[in-house]
Amino acid sequence: MIQLPQDHIQPAEHRSHKTRLVTKDGRCNIEFGNIEYSSHFAYLVDFWTTFVEIRWRFVLLLFVASFTGSWFIFSLLWYWIAKSNGDLAGQNHTDGQVRCIDNINGLTTAFLYSLETQTTIGALTGHCAGTVALIVIQSLVGVFINCFMCGVILAKISLPKKRAKTVTFSDTAVICLRKGSLCLLIRVANLRKTLLIGSQIYGKLLRTTTTPDGETIILDQVDIEFMVDAGKDNLFFVCPLTLYHVINKSSPFYKLSVDTLLQQDFELVVFLDGTAESTSSSCQVRTSYIPQEIQWGYSFLPIISHTKTGKYRVDFSNFSRSVQVMTPHCAECFDTDVDQRNHNNHNQHNHNHQEKQGIDNPGFQVIDIHDSVDVTKM
Question: What's the pTM value of the predicted model, to 2 decimals?
Answer without folding.
Answer: 0.68
